C-alpha cells in the first residue's frame, strides 16, 4: 500500500511538472540555428573571480575591454533589476544566411578594420554579436564574443522602448504629446519643464540644464527632484542629450498606465514581439527603472525582434505593435534639430528618442560601448549589434557599416 501511494505521488508530481506554465522559463527550446560562434568559449573561472573581487573591493567596472564586457553580459550578478518575462509563443525567425552579406566589404576609411569582409570585421574588431534580418529572415548572425543566449546590456537603446511605450499610450488617446509635460505633472509647474511639450522631450530638445545622475539615484521622489530643473534654452530649438528626458518619459508611462515600466514593457511590447527570452531591466535605489542609463538587458535576437516590429514583415497583423501613426511621427522630424552626420555628408534628425533619423526614412539608435539598432522600413531591414570598447576606448563602427549596408543595394526590395 505504501509503495502504491509513493508511485501515485510520483505520477502526480510528474503530471504537475508537465502541465506547469512556461511563464518562468527564461529561454524556450528552438531548432539548431545557423549562426556563427567563431569558437567563443566565454570567461574562465579565474577571470570571473577576478572581476567580482575587483567589484567587491570597490573597483570600477568601467575599465573597458574584457572587464567591462563581463559586466555587459552579467548585469544580473552586479546590479539590481526587475524581470521582464518572455512570450509563451516566441516568434520564430526563419534563417536564410546570405553569402553576399557575409562577404560584404566594409569601407576602407573606417578607423579600424576598413576593407575587411563583414564576417572578418566582426571577428577582428570590438563586436560581441551582430544580426541582420531582411524581409523577416535572418541573413547574417554571428557571436564572436558572447553566447547567443547571453543577456547583453542595451544601455541607451532602452530609450526607444520608452518612446514606443509613449506612442502606444498616444495611439490609445491616453497621452497627447502636443501638451506640455506639466499638464500631466502638476509638480512641474513653475519649474524649467513648465510649458515644454512632450514632443520636444521625445526629441531630446527639452532645453533643460544637465543634472548629475547621482541626484536621480538617491531621490525617493523623482518628480519633486526633477522640479528643481532649470531651462537653459527654449525647447524644440536645439538637440541636447539628457538622461532626464528619458527618465521623465518613463515616469509618464507609469503614471498613465498605472503599471511599473517593467510590467508595461512586458505586457505591451515584450510578449507582443514574441520575445524568446526573458529580459532584465535595471532599477536604481528608489525602485525607478534605469531606462535612462543601464537600461534593459536582452538577447541579440530579441533586440532584433523588437526592431522587426517597425518593418513591413513585423507589421502584417491587423493591429501591429507599431502603428502607421507612430511610424509616421518618427519620420515627421523637427527640422530645427537637423545636424550633419559625423561620418558622411548626410543630414540626420532626432525624433522619438531615436538618435538618427535619415532623410530617406531609415532610423538608428546607438549606445555606449558599441550597441546599436538600425531600421530601414522601406527596405524591410533590421540590423542589431552589441559590442564593448577596448582598453583604448575604441568601439566598433557597425553604426557606419549599417548605413552602408542599407545603401549598398543588397537589400533593395523587388
From TrEMBL:
InterPro entries per the UniProt record, alphabetical: Beta-lactam-related, Beta-lactam/transpept-like, Diverse_Enzym_Activities
Keyword Membrane: no
Keyword Hydrolase: yes
Enzyme Commission number, as recorded: 3.-.-.-
Class of this enzyme: hydrolase
Keywords: Hydrolase
Any GO MF annotation of the entry: hydrolase activity
Beta-lactamase-related domain location: 130-392
PANTHER family found in the cross-reference section: BETA-LACTAMASE-RELATED, BETA-LACTAMASE-RELATED DOMAIN-CONTAINING PROTEIN
The protein's name: Serine hydrolase
Organism, scientific name: Croceitalea rosinachiae
Amino acid at each position: 500500500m505504501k509503495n502504491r501511494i509513493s508511485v501515485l505521488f510520483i505520477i502526480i508530481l510528474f503530471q504537475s511538472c508537465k502541465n506547469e506554465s512556461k511563464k518562468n522559463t527564461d529561454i524556450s527550446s528552438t531548432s539548431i540555428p545557423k549562426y556563427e560562434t567563431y569558437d567563443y568559449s566565454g570567461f574562465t573561472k579565474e577571470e570571473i573571480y577576478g572581476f567580482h573581487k575587483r567589484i567587491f573591493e570597490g573597483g570600477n567596472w568601467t575599465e573597458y575591454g574584457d572587464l567591462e564586457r563581463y559586466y555587459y553580459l552579467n548585469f544580473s550578478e552586479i546590479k539590481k533589476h526587475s524581470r521582464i518575462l518572455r512570450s509563451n509563443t516566441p516568434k520564430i525567425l526563419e534563417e536564410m544566411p546570405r553569402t553576399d552579406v557575409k562577404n560584404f566589404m566594409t569601407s576602407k576609411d573606417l578607423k579600424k578594420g576598413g576593407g575587411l569582409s563583414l564576417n572578418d570585421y566582426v571577428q577582428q574588431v570590438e563586436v560581441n554579436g551582430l544580426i541582420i534580418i531582411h524581409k523577416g529572415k535572418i541573413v547574417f548572425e554571428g557571436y564572436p564574443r558572447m553566447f547567443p543566449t547571453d543577456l547583453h546590456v542595451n544601455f541607451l537603446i532602452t530609450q526607444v522602448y520608452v518612446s514606443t511605450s509613449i506612442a502606444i499610450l498616444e495611439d490609445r488617446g491616453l497621452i497627447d504629446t502636443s501638451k506640455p509635460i506639466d499638464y500631466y505633472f502638476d509638480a512641474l509647474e513653475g519649474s524649467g519643464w513648465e510649458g515644454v511639450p512632450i514632443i520636444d522631450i521625445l526629441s531630446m530638445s527639452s532645453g533643460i540644464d544637465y543634472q548629475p545622475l547621482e541626484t536621480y539615484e538617491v531621490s525617493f521622489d523623482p518628480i519633486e527632484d526633477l522640479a528643481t530643473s532649470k531651462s537653459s534654452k527654449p525647447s524644440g530649438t536645439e538637440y541636447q542629450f539628457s538622461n532626464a528626458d528619458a527618465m521623465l518619459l518613463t515616469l509618464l508611462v507609469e503614471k498613465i498606465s498605472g503599471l511599473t515600466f517593467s510590467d508595461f514593457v512586458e505586457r505591451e511590447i515584450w510578449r507582443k514581439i514574441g520575445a524568446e527570452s526573458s529580459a532584465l531591466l535595471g532599477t536604481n535605489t528608489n525602485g525607478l527603472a534605469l531606462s535612462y542609463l543601464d537600461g534593459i538587458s536582452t538577447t541579440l535576437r530579441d533586440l532584433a525582434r523588437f526592431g522587426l516590429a517597425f518593418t513591413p514583415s513585423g507589421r502584417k497583423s491587423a493591429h501591429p505593435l507599431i502603428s502607421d501613426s507612430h511610424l509616421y511621427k518618427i519620420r515627421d522630424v523637427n527640422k530645427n534639430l537637423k545636424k550633419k552626420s559625423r561620418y558622411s555628408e548626410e543630414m540626420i534628425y532626432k525624433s522619438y528618442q531615436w538618435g538618427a533619423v535619415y532623410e530617406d526614412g531609415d532610423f538608428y539608435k546607438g549606445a555606449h560601448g558599441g550597441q546599436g539598432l538600425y531600421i530601414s522600413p522601406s527596405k524591410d531591414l533590421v540590423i542589431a549589434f552589441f559590442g564593448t570598447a577596448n582598453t583604448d576606448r575604441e568601439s566598433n563602427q557597425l553604426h557606419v557599416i549599417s548605413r552602408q549596408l542599407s545603401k549598398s543595394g543588397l537589400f533593395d526590395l523587388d
